[in-house]
Amino acid sequence: MKVKIDNIEIDTELSPIIIKGERKYSLVRLYYYLIKTFYLLPRLYGIKVDDPLLGWKNEFERQFRQILSNELSLAKLYYNSNFEIETRKFTVLGQINAESVSVEVKLKEIPQLDDRGIRGLMKVDSFYFSDLEKKRPYIIPAIRSGLIASFYRFLPFQFEGAPGIPKTLGLISEFINSMLLPQGYKEEILGHKIYVKENDLYCDEDIIYNADPEILSIFPIVFYLKNSSENNIVIIEEPEAHLTDKGINYVRNLLNSSKAKIVIASDYFSNNTI
Q: What whole-number distance in Å separates Cα of residue 104 and Cα of residue 57?
């Protein structure tokens, strides 16, 4: 699946993708929410229609527009951008203007149909969803070290479940609420031990918010890359933030060994240095 935002193409088959320049944050964040919208799309055969093909197309546009609008509203991200998402069988064209979102689907392949109503709609839906890539995205903000220090108590998975933070915190909640550390979790980074103990997160013998910013910056990159698969897209803003040369080499090795598709927002990194 290829995504183009304002003529900038992001094709994770070429992973890792490096996005540079003044707009790098807005581009990768909008990319995150576009991929998340695709991931959240439900199957589309639970509606009453006369024309299955037109009904599916209209319902896809409605659902995509509604999900994306809600996600951008919660994140308080108000862009003025055009986007294009190309799949093998159809293309999604969209425009975001401040708080409004418009979506149009252009079908490249048409299924052969004999049925009408719900039966026909199910066939249409299966035709388009059968080979659709729905990868779950994760995003790691450039300010991650401060977020880990501030919200470390929300990371360990509690007995009654993960507490989480409000969705109204937007990108912060997307980041923190996806980092669920089980009891017994432990990791070692640059000679420092990170572990969960009695529902708190420690670095060596101290609470993690007292850890060196380099460790705080690397830790979420380690967590997401080690716990992701080829079915995930991991978006990392400034992997080099707070890092020494030793830390940069450590992160570079992680990027090279990860199974996930990776998108990076950085003026420091280039395709030649990953």
A: 9
d(CA 257, CA 271): 15
Confidence label for 157 from pLDDT (cuts 50, 70 and 90): confident
186 CB contacts (<8 Å, ≥6 apart)?
193, 194, 195, 196
Q: How many CB atoms lie within 10 A of CB 48?
A: 8
- For 193, other C-beta atoms within 10 Å of its C-beta total 12
Does residue 156 have a cis peptide bond before it, meaning omega lies within 30 degrees of 0?
A: no
Q: From CA 263, how far away is CA 235, in angstroms rounded?
A: 5
Tokens of 61: 């546009």
- Taking the CA atoms of the chain, what radius of gyration do you get in angstroms? 21
Residue ending a domain, choose from 103, 134, 165: 134
For residue 153, give the DSSP letter: G
In a domain, 102, yes or no: yes
Average pLDDT over residues 171-177: 94
| Phi and psi at residue 235, to the nearest 5° | -105, 125
Question: Are 76 and 15 within one domain?
Answer: yes
| Segment 48-93, tens digit of pLDDT | 778 889 999 999 999 999 999 999 999 888 889 999 999 999 999 9
| Residue 156 domain boundaries | 137-265
What residues contact 189, with CB distance under 8 A and at least 6 apart? 215, 218, 219, 222, 250
**More confident: 133 or 159:** 133
Q: How far apart are CA 137 and CA 32, in angstroms?
A: 6
